[in-house]
Amino acid sequence: MKKIVLLSLFMVPAMLLASGDAESSRYFAQTGRESDFWPRVINFTIFASLLYYLIANPIKNFFKGRSEGIAEQLNEIEKKLQAAKDEKKEAQNRLDESKKRAEEILADAKAEAILLAEKIATANQNELALLDKQLEEKMSLEERKAARETIDEILSENITADDIMLDEAKVVEIISKKVA
Hints:
Helices cover about 90% and strands about 0% of the residues. With about 180 residues, the protein is an all-alpha fold. α3 (about 35-160) packs across α4.
């Protein structure tokens, strides 16, 4: 539909100009000119200058405003881009710091674990030594206790009032029998 309208807008004036009617020939006869080229050029110049006078400032203002708007948008985008770069750099710095801190924490944790393991091992060794010492003391105490009980038993069973006159060799013999 638009094509037909556009075609008719261009074709109708062309057909009217192509039809050389009697009026146009009468114009040429009255004015004494064969063509009206120069008056048309002057009319076009006047029309173009009026059109320029009326439309030039609004068009200039429109394009100037558009240029300023684009420049402002570009500046705003550049500011946002710079802010994003700064934030990225700051985030990268924080990430690096976090990595360093994590490495330090791991190193500290490993050192602390080693110290705790050594402390626990030392405490266990000390406790084992103490237990061994207590075992030896208990064993020696039990040996002395057993020896006393054996001596008391032997003396109470084998020694009577009649045997008080025993000599030392006899007492040693009785004790050695009981112990063995």
